[in-house]
Design goal:
2 domains, alpha/beta, 11-stranded mixed β-sheet
């Protein structure tokens, strides 16, 4: 393990635990509210609320927020009973996924809800206030919203899949306001994590809104990261348009990249060394815009996902970004228990660092 200040690169070969994921964690006693219209899953908490409901903040209860005119996505929140309102608290944005390509949004909501129920145990254990957005992946509209396909930024794109980052911002803002109204001390910056498609969202959300993110944990990331730079190279200059980099970011979103804020984001990037069959780098059209971008990535950072992410992480660490990289020996395309434990320990360390800085 090499370490320079807080910039860490981990390449130790680690034994992989059996695939366990969140199911391996003990579930806390979550209060149940029967609801027959929550995609048929009334056996655990699923509490419908209005945007002005006082039930938005009910410790120990998973709260379902139905899409409305302001936020057109469903979402879930959970305030752990372990959270002390008088201490500095952090919102954890999690449960991001692209597992289902379907026009039946209720199916995606149901899967997100099950993820939220399972992760409530982690929220309790680590005193994280949880927010789970439900981002659609329609089958008749090929815009890959959760992966920040470049088309999400176009005004001509269907509103359902346009700018999911702004919709998540609205969720965070509404939830933060409700928490503060209930006396919670809540940091304005969030923790965000994801794996695979969720990893793409987490890492690129931090690029788009670094001032809103305290720490990001992103696994696999579709096979590559969006780099916080516009150009690459010394003699032959390559313009890194989205999703390679931020060269055309201002054209796409109307504002420039905030490099200073991005440098303050703590990042945990990870992948299994056998995770080579789920890349988005293979062909243009889904996430990659051109064959030229694919050729650039393969030639510059590696021709398979583990090597590519490792080399991109090293590239960022060399430029003094706050990045920790972890390569898991023997792991394929799965979120293992060991990954979960190290990710949550990473969030714990960042929280402790922030609380310590505030106490000085």
């Amino acid at each position: 393990m090499g370490q320079t200040g807080r910039h860490t690169f981990v390449l130790s070969i680690c034994a992989v635990c059996a695939l366990a994921g969140p199911e391996a964690y003990h579930h806390p006693p979550v209060r149940a509210h029967a609801r027959t219209s929550c995609q048929g899953h009334a056996r655990r908490t699923c509490y419908p609320i209005n945007s002005d409901s006082t039930e938005t903040v009910t410790p120990g209860t998973l709260v379902f927020h139905a899409a409305d005119s302001a936020i057109p996505y469903d979402w879930f929140t959970y305030v752990p009973e372990s959270a002390d309102p008088t201490e500095r608290n952090f919102i954890w944005v999690t449960g991001l996924h692209g597992n289902l390509m379907t026009d039946d949004y209720a199916r995606i909501t149901a899967e997100s809800r099950e993820m939220a129920v399972r992760r409530s145990a982690m929220a309790e254990q680590h005193k994280l206030i949880m927010l789970v957005p439900v981002i659609p992946r329609p089958s008749t509209n090929t815009v890959y919203a959760v992966a920040f396909d470049w088309r999400v930024f176009f005004d001509s794109t269907d509103a359902l899949v346009r700018r999911p980052d702004l919709k998540v911002n609205m969720m965070v803002d509404r939830f933060t306001e409700a928490l503060r109204d209930h006396g919670y001390d809540v940091d304005s910056r969030v923790f965000v994590n994801g794996f695979s498609a969720g990893g793409m969202f987490a890492q690129r959300y931090a690029v788009l809104h670094p001032e809103r993110v305290l720490a990001v944990a992103a696994g696999q990331c579709g096979g590559f990261m969006t780099l916080p730079e516009a150009f690459h190279g010394d003699t032959i200059i390559y313009e890194m348009d989205w999703p390679l980099g931020v060269h055309d970011l201002e054209t796409l979103v109307g504002y420039g990249f905030n490099n200073e804020a991005y440098r303050s984001v703590a990042q945990f990037i990870f992948i299994g060394d056998q995770d080579t069959a789920n890349s988005t780098v293979g062909r243009p059209g889904e996430v990659m815009r051109t064959q030229s971008q694919i050729d650039f990535l393969n030639a510059t950072f590696g021709d398979h996902d583990p090597a590519r992410l490792e080399n991109q992480a090293r590239y960022l660490i060399d430029r003094e970004y706050d990045v920790t990289f972890r390569l898991y020996a023997g792991a394929g395309h799965g979120f293992t228990r060991e990954m979960w434990e190290e990710m949550l320990s990473f969030f714990d360390r960042i929280r402790e660092r922030e609380v310590s800085l505030r106490a000085r």
